[in-house]
Amino acid sequence: MKKFIIHCSVFGLIFIAIIIAFYLLTPVNHKNYLYEINHKFRLLDSVPSPRIIFVGGSNVAFGVDSKAISDSLGINIVNTGLHAGLGLKYQLESVVDKLKSGDIIVIMPEYEQFYNNFFGQDNVISRTVKCQSFRNVELMDFNQLVNIIKGAPKIAYSDLTGRNRIDSAYSSINFNEYGDEIHHRSKKRQDKVQVFTINEEADEEVIETFSKKVNEIRSNGYKVIIFPPVTLEKKYAINKDKIDRLYHLMENAGVPFQSKVEIHILPDTCAFDTEYHLSDEGVRLLTPRLVKEIRGIVPELQQY
Amino acid sequence: MLFNSFAFILYLPTVFLLYWFVFRRLKWQNALIVVASYVFYGWWDWRFLILIAITTFFSFLSGIAISHYDKKSIRRAVLTANIVLNLGILALFKYFNFFVENLQAILSPIGITLDNVTLSLILPVGISFYTFQALSYSIDVYRGKIEATRHIVAFFAFISFFPQLVAGPIERATNLLPQFLVPRKFDYASAVDGCRQILWGLFKKMVIADNCAVTVNLVFNDFTAYDSPQLWLAAFFFTFQIYGDFSGYSDIAIGTAKLFGIRLMRNFNLPYFSRDIAEFWRKWHISLTTWFRDYVYIPLGGSRCKKSKVVRNTFVIFLVSGFWHGAEWTFIAWGAYHAVLFMPLIITGKNRRYTEIPAADSILPPMRESLMMGMTFLLVLIGWVIFRSDTISDAWHYIVRMFTDWHFVAPLKGKKNLVYILLLLVIEWLQRRRSHAFDIPHSGLMSYRAVRWTVYLFFAFICLAFSGEQGQFIYFQF
Fold first, then answer.
1. pTM given for the model
2. Pairing relation of β-strands A231-232 and A223-226?
3. Residue A205 forms contact with B (CB below 8 Å)
4. Domain boundaries in chain B?
């Protein structure tokens, strides 16, 4: 028995040591898409308020023309959208500390973030933490820390073998001064874009936690607007029940989506390479709608 | 609690240490197993515990009652009552809505409607597994194969033993219950073997099943959008997803049980190297197949009766087996499909042609056997399309598209999974004479601990570095 426990412990320690060594000792690629998070945090620190801060996954990074919105509403914009795999919890909490008086937060979560993605995907959150040199780790709860640990071997392997290559459409160098991903707008869209069926039921615990976070931000005097993500026609057609139910649950939780889903529905041909990444045409269609919706909710913005 | 979760990584060593160091007496060890198993099961939803407690308690009582009475009619009545109770719970939670919805479909053309009759019930995970395990006990007591136990804690441990509670193997009372009645001794070699088997199970679940699941879900959810090569690839991946998922679970369960000094039965024996469908069914989900054989097929007359009855019995067992998997017509169709494949073998008496290990004395099988394996695999793969599809109509269209919508284009999704599957097949083939793929003899290079540990570390790393998105085990829903 003693021998077994010693062997198991030694094996476990060697295993953990190998993972930690590979995870920590492999260099960070500054052109990695997720490295952009550092730029976004710098924007949050430096852009003066009042401002609109967009929060969300890559739907926000790829789908918003911040300059056009800024010009229309006369307010500074910071687009913090990067990757849904970061999890809504992290996306919100990492922004909260950097809010300034007069800020308006526009949250556009992807639908899947209410199903199984609240604490983030292991590899995404693990790489992001590494890209940030472990800043913001103190914001993480147990579930997120577990995800970081689970993702560490994947990151270690990809960094070690050089699989951490940079796809031309996915790099930290493709973002503009607002935090928008702009490189793809000059590229040809993919002919066939996969649209996913939402198979699971919305996680009501996630919605409740989300609601608490939003109310916490609101109670500190900030305005929070919640929009649905861009929704392709086909996405809506095959997931109508799930999306309608999510609307209902959000409303019951006191954090309703503040615009109708129809406003965010775009033709399937507006997708760039995934259902949440808009092509240039898609960005041009969605942006004025967002401006109109935000103006409707925050009428004082019209004075600019 | 999932085997591949962080919670389980903390849970298992805790229970292990308490089991061997704190609760060293038999009674206390059994009590610990019951408590630990109820924590494990209640992790999903504590309300499930009520059902399993009812099933266990009444099966325990029925055993005592059956052994208490000598009169056959009373014994039979007690057994029937216990079967009705257990199958009643199963039917209510798993099949009620299915029956109502189908009845509704039949009655609505004649103007009868059954509004608001369906129930909004959650399906307790693993209900079919522990129900069948409990049934086997009372039937075996009735048949005189085992004596009724009066040790209620040991009996609760037998039904709820956490490694195999939610997805099997479905143990027989004759094998498992006696193990809870005698003191267990820690055996180093067995515990190490258990750890190796857990590692192999995790590889099958996390690397094979979870990665294949991504492509499978993508394609099966929108199969009309894909060409034939991609449909074939998705079907191929599902074939390995379900194998990796289910046999992976079984390996983890068997390995975990070894850590507690308990031997569970083998549940999978390299089914995809089968040379005909009969061999496949002797090697796939063995604990369920033999359960149906012993408690349904043989009581119906088995194969020692007229051919027409043998045909009937075979159909019955396959249909019931399909239906056991869930309240969907696709499962029944899958069962019927396999019955049809099985029928020629049973009619011609060739259903036991292949009982020995393939290529027992050589590295590769003879050409004829290789072809047989390929053909059997193909037939099984088609069956999995039926199993995985949402409706029979979808299954039909999927299969038609596989054969007709052929454009020679390379499949886009999931090609890297082929590498993982190849690794799985090579290792399982090389280890086909052993009890599991990581049952590695300490000979040659492997006699050096450093080499063995390097192999295990490599696989442990692979499990994490190449794992797909964590998913529930498919068979939990059954």
1. 0.82
2. unpaired
3. no
4. 6-184, 189-275+354-477
